[in-house]
Specification:
alpha/beta, 56% helix
Amino acid sequence: MMKATQKLHAMGQSIWLDNITRGLLTSGTLRRYIQEFSVTGLTSNPTIFDHAIKNSHDYDDAIRKKLKEGKSGEALFFELALEDLSQAADLFRPVHDQTNGVDGWVSLEVSPLLANDTTGTIAAAKELHTRAHRPNLFIKIPGTRAGLSAIEEAIFVGVPINVTLLFSREQYVAAAEAYLRGIERRIAAGLKPDVFSVASMFISRWDVAAMEKTPDALRDHLGIAIAKRTYKAYRGLLDSRRWQRLLNSGAQPQRLLWASTGTKDPSASDVLYVKSLAAPFTVNTMPEDTLKALADHGELSGVLPDDGGDCEGTLAKITTAGIDIDALALQLQIEGAASFVKSWNELMECIVSKSEALKTPQT
């Protein structure tokens, strides 16, 4: 019998793992997920690396070696991350080649400390992508107001981008338009327009943030309604004349990606967001526990409606309950950016403390 993971893949949605550790690579677990759970890509973030480095000895030898080479802090971290992601990219390379670059991607985030530095973000994105020597590495840039010009410029110079930290239809459309402008500038400059991108919408954080005010009947419905509203805009954009012109020039559509799809509410299904957000030509990047739950006992319930279905009715009821959706979208993005900085600082502290511990002669 087909697992739900296989069914989801057959429906046209890419399943990516929202995790990377050296142990996943060396143990063969990631390879097994590819073979058994139809996983075709992965995403990473500073929190994931912080936990991986802090909670295992898998990186100790590599850190010792880099310390002897005079590496430290951020430079040392990016070497570790690029080693892991290069290995993962190689595992996904057959999928990447088979799909002509549509799938088979891994993602690495630029330092969130560059959030308000467009020039610094572009320089970091170019450098990291070049250093990886892998065509299937996305560089993650937040889709904040400050990040939009960096996204446009990075696409223009040919760096594949995973736009992260999107929470609403409006934030998604702004990020998609930044991508479009980058592609249009490439075409105008006589450059090939096939620079790939995904736009990552964060889902479960909506329901966590609104839990106190949400009526019981609408509990855990807000994130899915926002996703449906955004999916309608996504489909509309893909069908627009502006996009049709670019497709005619050889451009690749930016795919919509569902992120933050692990269930946070203990009273809800552990595959709530996965079964509710099935849709062709999208990606769902899911935590390891969610992936395993989907493979073990997940059931799918059809695909997202192109027109957003009942999303506006649901959102109207939630607004009536006293939740300002536009204000909450902005708040979630601001808090998300602050949380990225916090995670980054914790990761740097972890690198420093590990480095100090490993410098100490072993007895």
